[in-house]
Design a protein that fits this description.
The longest helix has 14 residues. A hairpin with a 7-residue loop joins strand 17 and strand 18. It is elongated, with a radius of gyration of 23 Å. It is an alpha+beta fold and 447 residues long. The chain contains 13 helices and 24 strands. Strands 2, 5, 7, 9, 10, 11, 12, 13 and 15 form a nine-stranded antiparallel β-sheet that branches. The chain is 26% helix and 25% strand. Helix 8 packs antiparallel against helix 9 and helix 9 packs antiparallel against helix 13.
């Protein structure tokens, strides 16, 4: 994939400093007088699984946009939120008001198709994630299921919306997604007696003899509901067996990944999930779409993420949070497909833009990649409000037409970490400094 190759210089290891891989941070002497187009200041979420300190790309982007931000080396910086979600609302720079307030006062900026479909609110939440350890094994309900869960247990499922997600890798990004092909699961059940011990002979043998989705569901349910004593015993046996394996066998049984998961989540049955779920690495520019009822877990790396505006997550395994095993088992899609089929392809729409358009109306994402030496680029007009994040490079000329409505400051230049809001129908032309490669992502809503 061509776009992946061109982003590869952003790669880094979480064991090494990120600073040498990224451009310098925004000049801390910049003042509000030099930031003149609808620029945003975004919320940072410090979840425990995030990368700590300035090594987090989330921290770097946030610090670049807000030089006064304190970045403690012992704090995890997990997510950068761009949108109107009440748990982390974005602020319009220079006004102190939130983006949500601005949209409520000027709803036409959303575009009439968005208003007709979603009402007078932004339908998506745009994010950057910096992942240092596995997130929970999880899935998201479809719209009708979300409504029912919210009705039955509003204390757990706090809104009635679905939560489809799309991930675009910034660095090599490790994840689990969907169930492995049947032959791989059968092989693991035959070769890893500890896995079979947790699942139980009856369910495991039934799948080996007849690898149907129904029998896979029985295996997954048995594994996730196994007794703590059985799980502890099986984990201990496999941990003791790993050191005696040669490197080839250890690699085949995902020894490094298993040990990494067990270090962070000791005693968790989710460690065995790697033998049932696809394990894949997205290269920079590659994407993955997570529709309803698709089991997944992010493991390591940095990505752009866009999703419907919701908090509905059904978890089970690799998390200290509430686990709803019964709901997860009942809702999952148990199709068994190769890992590569879980990747979602973008398409080129112009010289500089790759368009990732998932099969949901709530969101889509443009990746704008402009090689060094290019003098200017005009972003395509769309019929929805959009949010633009600059990941690399800078432009010393920014022209928006027509100008933003309302009394808001507008930016005349952008740097790494800049986040801009564009109303529906606005065009944006960027004029680049000589030698500056430019990479940005833009969340939009295509209806």
């Amino acid at each position: 994939m061509q776009v992946a190759t061109s982003i590869v210089k952003l790669e880094f290891s979480h064991e090494e400093s990120y600073l040498k891989e990224f451009p310098k941070l925004r000049n801390p002497t910049a003042t509000s007088e030099t930031t003149r187009n609808m620029e945003l200041q975004c919320a940072v979420q410090k979840y425990a699984w995030g990368v700590r300190g300035i090594e987090s790309s989330v921290a770097q982007l946030a610090k670049a946009a807000n030089p006064e931000l304190e970045v403690a080396e012992d704090q995890p910086f997990a997510e950068l939120w761009m949108g109107t979600h009440p748990s982390g609302p974005t602020v319009v720079k220079g006004t102190g008001g939130t983006l949500g307030d601005y949209i409520s006062k000027h709803p036409d900026v959303l575009g009439s198709p968005v208003i007709q479909k979603f009402g007078k609110s932004l339908p998506y939440l745009f994010k950057v994630l910096s992942v240092n350890q596995a997130l929970s094994i999880q899935a998201h309900p479809n719209k009708s299921h979300a409504e029912q869960l919210h009705k039955d247990r509003p204390d757990v499922y706090k809104d009635p919306n679905h939560k489809p997600e799309m991930t675009i890798a910034l660095t090599p990004f490790q994840a689990m997604c969907g169930f492995r092909p049947a032959e791989q699961i059968v092989k693991h059940l035959k070769e890893i007696h500890e896995l079979k011990k947790v699942i139980g002979d009856a369910a495991a043998d039934a799948f080996i003899e007849n690898p149907t989705e129904e029998n896979l569901k029985a295996c997954f349910s048995a594994m996730m509901n196994a007794s703590k004593d059985t799980i502890a015993s099986a984990l201990s046996e496999l941990l003791q067996r790993f050191p005696g394996m040669d490197s080839g066998k250890g690699e085949e049984l995902l020894r490094e990944l298993f040990l990494r998961l067990h270090e962070k989540y000791p005693g968790d049955v989710g460690c065995f999930s790697i033998y049932l779920l696809n394990y894949l690495t997205l290269q920079p520019g590659e994407s993955m779409f997570l529709g309803p009822n698709i089991i997944h877990a992010y493991l390591l790396g940095d990505c752009i993420e866009c999703m419907a505006c919701s908090d509905n997550v059904v978890r089970a395994g690799l998390t200290p949070k509430y686990q709803d095993v019964e709901t997860l088992v009942s809702m999952l899609e148990y199709g068994m497909v190769p890992a590569e089929s879980r990747k979602f392809q973008g398409s080129k729409v112009d010289q500089f833009t790759t368009f990732y358009n998932p099969p949901v109306p709530d969101f889509a994402v443009d990746m704008i990649e402009v090689p060094s030496g290019t003098k200017q680029c005009t972003l395509r007009q769309v019929d929805s409000a959009s949010i633009l994040l600059v990941v690399e490079g800078e432009a010393d000329g920014v022209e928006v037409s027509p100008p933003p409505v309302g009394d808001v400051p507008v930016a005349t230049s952008v740097l790494r970490g800049s986040v801009l809001f564009l109303a529906a129908g606005q065009s944006l032309t960027l004029q680049f400094k000589a030698g500056s490669r430019f990479l940005a992502f833009r969340a939009i809503c295509v209806l």
